[in-house]
Amino acid sequence: xxxxxxxxxxxxxxxxxxxxxxxxxxxxxxxxxxxxxxxxxxxxxxxxxxxxxxxxxxxxxxxxxxxxxxxxxxxxxxxxxxxxxxxxxxxxxxxxxxxxxxxxxxxxxxxxxxxxxxxxxxxxxxxxxxxxxxxxxxxxxxxxxxxxxxxxxxxxxxxxxxxxxxxxxxxxxxxxxxxxxxxxxxxxxxxxxxxxxxxxxxxxxxxxxxxxxxxxxxxxxxxxxxxxxxxxxxxxxxxxxxxxxxxxxxxxxxxxxxxxxxxxxxxxxxxxxxxxxxxxxxxxxxxxxxxxxxxxxxxxxxxxxxxxxxxxxxxxxxxxxxxxxxxxxxxxxxxxxxxxxxxxxxxxxxxxxxxxxxxxxxxxxxxxxxxxxxxxxxxxxxxxxxxxxxxxxxxxxxxxxxxxxxxxxxxxxxxxxxxxxxxxxx
Length: 426
What we know:
Layout: H1 2-20, E1 29-35, H2 38-54, E2 59-65, H3 70-80, E3 86-90, H4 94-100, H5 121-126, E4 129-130, E5 133-134, E6 137-138, E7 144-149, H6 150-156, H7 166-179, E8 184-187, H8 190-206, H9 222-237, H10 244-247, H11 258-261, E9 265-271, H12 275-280, E10 287-290, E11 309-313, H13 320-332, H14 334-340, H15 350-359, H16 364-375, H17 388-402, H18 408-425
Parallel strand pairs: 1-2, 1-3, 8-9
Antiparallel strand pairs: 3-11, 4-5, 6-11, 7-9, 7-10
């Protein structure tokens, strides 16, 4: 925490220096809001400063946030008309925002200011394009990652070359904790379990997403939902996961869990865009990316290549063109790409990846995790399945299991009732 505060203070002082010399340029002022760790924050600030150096009539104010509560904050800002000019966006939340209003600029309307030719066209079509409009730009190519602490794996006799299945995760994790009571197989929190376990588990069984965006039908049965929740229940009861009462303090900050920093977890789940936080939390650690867990009798892999975040330009911005120009610099300028490297996962443009490859600044563990994600054939579930309300319903079901306040059957029934109510209203 002390390190973070020192870094943020330094960044704020740096910005103040620029802002002090640009008061006369208030008409070309931008606000840029994002969340991230120290490395992402520092790199983003550096790029902003470089842009302001090259464009002395422009000032950009940084609004750095935590990812906790970020979606709710953005929702309030959009509803009240107070949103920043440029915003980093949660991928799961953007479809819901798009469905509620014309909040974001269509970057395809500014071909002279924003160069999309550096992106793979199919990738942009899949991520960020809504009804033919480029309303959000992916910040990278990513996926869900499983990061192994090599030393812990060796201590606990875990074979990192073996494909993990849900079945052997439970068996190996229970055996590990029985033989090494201070160790746990997997570092998670209840939010992570919704995205990394519950929905992929169900997708692997059915080949369908939680809620179909068109028909609003469920892609699971009560039986399969009970099965998935029972798996999570058993992982808690048999010591595969640390008790929720102990891990709750580090919700959405699992890299700060003392047991992780002490090397007492074999694996940690993370998006490839922030998996570096798990690794830098153990300065002298050695890590390996392994393939995500798969069901032996799966219909598909359940996991898919994705983007970690989006960048959007606010449609009510008074400086839309300047905001678009900055985003073009952010994505397409070679010097900017050298600074940003992989702080938001593997860069989304071919040119940026070439720059990073030449400089050798892409983490090989992250590159391996992205490669595994690209090899998965799961169906993307962005939309109704990942709306904030539906995610909360899933998380509440998991928390009732984790804290022992409901059986898997009871949690499943309540989750189905709440989801039925949700789809009746959308």
